[in-house]
Amino acid sequence: MTTPSHSSTFGRADAAAAGLGSGALGLGIAQALAAVLHASPTPLIALGDRFIDLTPRPLKEWAVERFGTADKPVLLGNMLVVTAVLLLAVGVAARWRRPLGPVGFAVLGAVDALALASGRHGADPSSYVALVVGLAVGSGVLWWFTVPVVPEPEAEAPPGFDRRRFLLLATATGAAGAVAGLGVPRLVPGETGRAGISLPRATDPAPRLARGADFRLPGLTPHLTSNDDFYRIDIALLTPRLNVDDWKLRVRGMVDQPFELTYRELLAMPLVERRVTLACVSNPVGGEYVGNATWLGVRVADVLERAGVKAGADAVQSRGADGITIGTPLAALTDGRDALLAIGMNGKPLPIDHGFPVRMVVPGLYGYVSATKWITELEVTQYADFTAYWTQRGWAPEGPVKTGCRIDLPGDNVKAGEVTVAGVAWAQHRGIGKVEVRVDDGPWQPAELAAEDGIDTWRQWRWTWPASAGTHRIEARATDLHGATQTGEVVDVAPDGATGYPSLAVHVG
Ligand SMILES: Nc1nc2c(c(=O)[nH]1)N[C@H]1C(S)=C(S)[C@@H](COP(=O)(O)O)O[C@H]1N2
Ligand SMILES: [Mo]
């Protein structure tokens, strides 16, 4: 008989399970250890970050469109599935040639180490420690499992020891560890100090909201977006949880006097409160990635003035704790508009997802060139000297918001008669002067505008439609206060924002 005897004692399925079990245990230990050591990023997150950074633009757009804000859980899920398949393969390989177990683990570990080393911001040494310990345990367990049991399998393990049960346990422990490693940084309560913050009053409060700025129509987007309903877009796989007592803003680059600012110092500066509509460049026509909030913060211009901007600078490169870099035209921060380092959103300290403790908000610019969350640095510089995160990926270096609008009402099905058509329109820092509606390519008809709330916010509009039976197509277009009307040319979101009239097909019964 020439059949290798070990293949009769454990089959390919067992071996695959062994690869998965030992790998999951190793990964779980690595993740959990990283969490305990406060290592950033953890081995799994490093991989995810690299994946996000290297994803080609069309795939990323597809993911954002398809999964919206759930794109990150979906990414993590896919990563775990791919990792599981690789681990199954390592197990099968190790059954064939025992050293292929450790070799396979080493290869996977090397890929992860590379992700750690080449990440957005270097990894902590403890991240590598966690990875190596996880690898050692994982490949040790696989080595032990794939011991060639020649004549008496029982001799290799203590009597009554059930390898299968052990593997099941290892997989479960590993998975729990991996999940814990992902979750621990989120679950540790109180460490940000956010709960203890009471925001000072604005020295320069927002003007009172004009009566009639909100039609209060059921189904129509409210004029102010609540913190919970505000869209969220960022590259942070794990939301940075910065501690307010440790936070500092570095102001540097082409300045006379570089300096650092603590949260306390920021709060002691004059505080401005403004309503500003924020929009994402990835918002498709008719999309949801736009919101309007009341922001409380310090003027970026005040901070820059304290540093003293040198001649020749034309940009500010800001950094967020998630490793992003964002380039903003210096002019937009100093031309008198309300560009803020915001600490408050709708009366609350900035929510963690929206950039706690401090983010930037600049009226008139898309978020990717202005709205740096978890901000840690302002570097005064020149566009010629840097390429920001999104610009490296093909998006335009400067991103003024394009005039646009959305149709929220009515739904797809209405009864014939007078029907309210309504929505919101935006042209941040230019203001909305007119919205028009047309049905089935008929003449453009002026809609009623809600009371103006300054030029930096969106504006609700409504129009009464004498709807007749049949299927109709409604379109809308906005014109800013300078008289420029949004274009009907259909352009995709990349590289500098979508255009085209929003349209709605309505069945009138
Ligand atoms: N640190 C950081 N800030 C960021 C981003 C990011 O990925 N990381 N994304 C930007 C983009 S593309 C947009 S549209 C806005 C979204 O802000 P919100 O999530 O509070 O709505 O944040 C901007 N600021
Ligand atoms: Mo964005």
Q: What descriptors fit this protein?
A:
509 residues, alpha+beta, Immunoglobulin-like, 3 domains, five-stranded mixed sheet, five-stranded antiparallel sheet, 12 helices, 32% helix, disordered N terminus, binds ligand MTE, Oxidoreductase, OxRdtase_Mopterin-bd_dom, OxRdtase_Mopterin-bd_sf, transmembrane, membrane
In short:
The chain has 509 residues and is an alpha+beta fold. 32% of the residues lie in helices and 22% in strands.
Which architecture name of the largest domain does CATH use?
Alpha-Beta Complex
Number of domains: 3
**Beta-strand fraction estimate:** 15-25%
User: What is the CATH class of the largest domain?
Assistant: Alpha Beta
How many E strands? 19
Q: Roughly how much helix do the residues carry, as a percent range?
A: 25-40%
Which sequence of strands runs across the widest sheet? 2-1-10-5-6
What is the structural class? Answer: alpha+beta
How far is the first residue's CA from the last residue's CA? 80 Å
Unreliable segments (pLDDT under 50, ≥5 consecutive)?
Answer: 1-8
Bound molecules: the ligand Nc1nc2c(c(=O)[nH]1)N[C@H]1C(S)=C(S)[C@@H](COP(=O)(O)O)O[C@H]1N2, molybdenum atom
Count of DSSP-assigned helices: 12
Transmembrane segments: 75-94, 128-146, 166-184
InterPro entries: Ig_E-set, OxRdtase_Mopterin-bd_dom, OxRdtase_Mopterin-bd_sf
Domain Oxidoreductase molybdopterin-binding: 239-389
Keywords: Membrane, Transmembrane, Transmembrane helix
